Amino acid sequence: MRLCVIGAGTAGLTAIRQGIKFGCSVTAFEQSDKIGGTWVYDENIGKNKYGIDVHSSMYAGLHTNLPKEVMGAPDFPIPPQEKSYISAEDFLKYLNLY
Fold first, then answer.
1. Pairing between β-strand 2-6 and β-strand 25-29 as defined by DSSP bridges
2. How far apart, in Å, are the Cα atoms of 83 and each of 68, 80, 88?
3. Cys-Cys crosslink for 41: which of 8, 20, 56, 58, Cβ 3.0 to 4.6 Å?
């Protein structure tokens, strides 16, 4: 079975991981050069190097509004940290590990 995933944000990465787990041949398409979707902070505005509008709901210093204990995948928990509400940067690191 073949699976195509559009976007490598949190949902896309989950779909990719589950597709691989169930033996699918997975192809993923991501418009940026990074995985993480909305968790990728970019202070630039306007258009990126590909001419695509830059949009982000992120801002410098953002922390999650949910505790890390409920944000991680059941089979791949977020690594232990002192705080429950982690920085966006730490969550993006988790997505890259995932």
1. parallel
2. 8, 9, 13
3. 58
* Predicted TM-score (pTM) of this structure: 0.85
Are 92 and 39 within 8 A, CB to CB?
yes
Q: Pick from 73, 58, 55, 64: which is nearest to 91 by CA?
A: 64
* pLDDT tens per residue across span 20-44: 999 999 999 998 889 999 899 888 7
Number of residues that this document lists for the chain: 98
Contacts of 7 (CB under 8 A, 6+ apart): 28, 29, 30, 31, 37
pLDDT of residue 63: 95
User: Under a CB-based contact definition with an 8 Å cutoff, are residues 37 and 7 in contact?
Assistant: yes
